[in-house]
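Write out the 3D structure for:
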Amino acid sequence: MDSTQNGGKFATNTTPTPTPTYANLHAPPNWPSTRPYNGVKDLTFHIVFTFIYIFFSLSLIGSIYVIYRTYMKWKSNNYETLPMSLRLPFYSVIVDCLIIIAHLVNTVNIQGYSVIYAVPWFSPVCEVIGALSIWTLSLNLHLFFTVAISTYLRVCRKIRFDYGKCDYKLFIIVVALATLPLLTVINGYGAGRWWCAGKKNANTLEMIGIMSMTMEVVIVIFAHYRIIILLVRHRSQLRERLDSRTFNDFEHRIARNVARYILLFFLQWLPISVFVAVHRNGNEEAWTYIILIIGLSFSGIANSIQYIVNEGFSHKIALTSSSNNSNSLEVITIKN
């Protein structure tokens, strides 16, 4: 041990360890080498994470509100099956909650390890959290894609799809569509600038994401467009024969309500698509992440507003049900 003489006495050298800085800090083994920001004094860091916590909080509040209102309507209907016009926003906000929770877990560590080591999460946790964040977002995409296709076939082609008890077939399809493509790029996840997601230069993951979003958004828009065209024609027919309201009249009104939520889906994925496009070109400025944050939180906020517009504040619904051997046919009266 080194020592020095001071006044006839030996004193141990107790020079304090310097405070870790980005100049002298070495990340532990297996940690990403990303340096996302210049410590807690970085204004950009505070701007981005202020947007995260504000918009994510609003999205969670809106999602919880829709879940509560849907449960109360289900309860007032003696726990019988609700129409898709109520089930779709309910399923959507559940997925929104998963998205927000996954991304909050993804970003909460930025205030801990990242302030010291300048990385979102350590490996392999970062890869797992990044994959889960992308997976939950993919669930949202495939949920609306599946429901849009099913609604199009039901309304425009008169082809009915039996979702099964508690819509379990719908969930199986959505989970499978969201999971299988991501498994093909299992090594494509890691640390980004602000959180864990896809690794830089993970071209396969980026191409799968871009192709999936483009194809499914286009198909959803096409299905949405065809449903709207049919409903416009149907409304004209109703004016000509107001006394001949049949079951199909009510079912088409259900589809109109569902189509509104699909429109919200498009508005949600527009900023996400912009982020993916500019991020692929290497643009990592703060505004691109703010656009992504708005896209991630848009659905929960917009769904709650749309739910209030469509359903008001009453827990009761005008609903009758009948069933056959293959499907439960639900009817709901929607105000013009």
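The chain has one domain: 3-332.
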